[in-house]
């Protein structure tokens, strides 16, 4: 089995070709900073061609039987397994993911694909009772048509697949624009998988390019019925405004300022290990990461001591080394933002308990004690290996601190008393929260999404099927109806 080629190109209407724009984009390995490849950026003509192909192919795809669609998804799953090493290698070299991160991301994306394979059999209508004698009242569920998918660089394979697979499985066509840093794992390798699996041409289209060149044009294009976007809250707001002007639906999963709460009766060792994973997995570059660790004052010192000791022991370095636990930040711009937040926190009074050490795109784990919830490092999404630990007194203060943010994506609560933890969890203004675990969780059959400025809509399971379909009310009058005006 030969490895995939042409992964640096657009995929439009079944053809692999360079973008038509004037500029090019370098895709750099975050660890070595070597140029993996450069791609020609797309322009508006490429976008038009992609939407035209998608619109033309979608109607025939909608008519395919559930078994025809399911067969393609089953084959795509087989290909994902056969090419697992190839795919995870791309995750490591393109996004800087460690071996653990690459394996985890592959697994979650694979499950999203497999769960979506059932959707062609699960999208169904309904018959309602009618007030009118002799009338049959039906509701048909139909695909939206063409769905626009814009994805980020942090978990590109998973965050693309969780929209691409259900969109196709519910009868839609897609136009995908991946992040510039991760075009392969965010789009082209997934397109290759579906192409090899036998997906009809035109249903899956990829346009590579800078957001500054084609981002607005894609959002405002008249063909796309819904925009599925995962990324930062500021960009999500911009997309929502532009989509509203076009009367388009949006499905937005945005940033998080997630609180991991450790109550005074928590299993300390388990809470420390959970916090370590929830904070430092993929260098903290996860929207669900533990952005703030809230610890009751009764166990604060013990928690901080144990957490800091383990954070210092994490191995930092080459993500291709299976023993590496902390790999590189995706690019220099992100490194600068993270280090600025660290310095702002220290200037505001936070106490660094680890050496502040940066080597290229590597940032060694940072632990900040005596953080207050009003500091920038506690109010902004860090997206890096920086752990602000905040002290609280009692459950009510923990709830107040956790909710003191404009975002509400995920969270966690630790306590040996499940009912106590549940009462706290239900009081947190967040779309997802996990008891005696950490905030980074994603099951392909469970509801996923945020509250407040962390997003609009829900992913996974029955929820994504509703997002990516629409309803049509059709009635049939089986017997003559008397009218008031006859």
UniProtKB/TrEMBL annotation:
The record ties this protein, via SUPFAM superfamilies, to: ALDH-like
What Gene3D superfamilies does the annotation carry? Aldehyde Dehydrogenase, Chain A, domain 1 (3.40.605.10), Aldehyde Dehydrogenase, Chain A, domain 2 (3.40.309.10)
Xref: PROSITE patterns: ALDEHYDE_DEHYDR_CYS, ALDEHYDE_DEHYDR_GLU
Keyword Oxidoreductase belongs to the record? yes
Which UniProt keywords are given for this protein, alphabetically ordered?
NAD, Oxidoreductase
Give yes or no: UniProt keyword S-adenosyl-L-methionine: no
Question: By its UniProt entry, which InterPro entries does this protein fall under?
Answer: Ald_DH/histidinol_DH (IPR016161), Ald_DH_C (IPR016163), Ald_DH_CS_CYS (IPR016160), Ald_DH_CS_GLU (IPR029510), Ald_DH_N (IPR016162), Aldehyde_DH_dom (IPR015590)
Domain Aldehyde dehydrogenase per the UniProt entry, residue ranges: 16-474
Q: Name one GO molecular function term.
A: oxidoreductase activity, acting on the aldehyde or oxo group of donors, NAD or NADP as acceptor
**Catalytic residues (UniProt):** 253
Instruction: Describe the family membership recorded for this protein in Swiss-Prot or TrEMBL.
Output: Belongs to the aldehyde dehydrogenase family.
Query: What name goes with this protein?
Result: Aldehyde dehydrogenase (NAD+)
